[in-house]
Design goal:
Distance between the termini: 43 Å
Largest sheet: none
Number of helices: 9
Shape: elongated
Radius of gyration: 18 Å
Number of strands: 0
């Protein structure tokens, strides 16, 4: 799966060749087809892998560390999607490639929609811990805006259009705005 994420990040979904994936993983193409059945299976499993890996670096914390305040947890979760780390860059690039290719590969849409919904729900839950009186609908809308912003900023940063520090500052400004919008409701 790491090899698939690397190849997709480097070549894009449309440039994914099973032969290159097999070489990158150090296995035969027959083994790739045996395990994944087809290209759609490779893409589906890679998306799942990317999501799991993102979860490990956005939610994994030292068990001995002091617990974070709700707002700190929210900010950290969003900001960890924007860090100068090879795994994060690879994950974000591969996610962007998978998202963009869903335009041409409809079978990816449902899996991407599910993964996005899970992320939105996680952020809505964190927002709800900061603003417990906000309605579920308002929390979901705020979470959708924040996750979409992080995705867009990530692509701008990865494309060299936006400095990382500025992207992270924009996320923190957006958190302020969303929390203010949610108020004390």
């Amino acid at each position: 799966m790491e090899a698939a994420a690397r190849v997709i990040a480097r070549r894009g979904v449309r440039g994914l060749r099973v032969e290159e994936l097999a070489a990158e993983a150090g296995v035969s193409t027959a083994l790739i087809y045996y395990h994944f059945k087809d290209r759609a299976g490779i893409l589906r499993q890679t998306l799942e892998f990317i999501n799991d890996r993102a979860g490990s670096y956005t939610t994994g914390r030292d068990p001995d560390a002091a617990p974070l305040e709700p707002r700190q947890a929210l900010e950290q979760t969003l900001l960890l999607e924007l860090q100068d780390d090879e795994t994060v860059r690879e994950n974000s690039t591969a996610w962007g490639e998978l998202r963009a290719s869903a335009i041409f590969e409809p079978h990816l849409r449902e899996d991407l929609a599910k993964a996005t919904l899970i992320w939105v729900q996680e952020i809505a839950d964190l927002l709800g811990r900061v603003r417990p009186m906000a309605t579920a609908a308002d929390l979901a809308i705020a979470a959708e805006r924040l996750t979409a912003l992080v995705e867009g900023l990530s692509m701008r940063w990865l494309g060299g259009i936006l400095p990382l520090r500025h992207a992270r500052a924009l996320v923190l400004d957006a958190v302020d705005a969303e929390l203010e919008r949610l108020g004390g409701r």
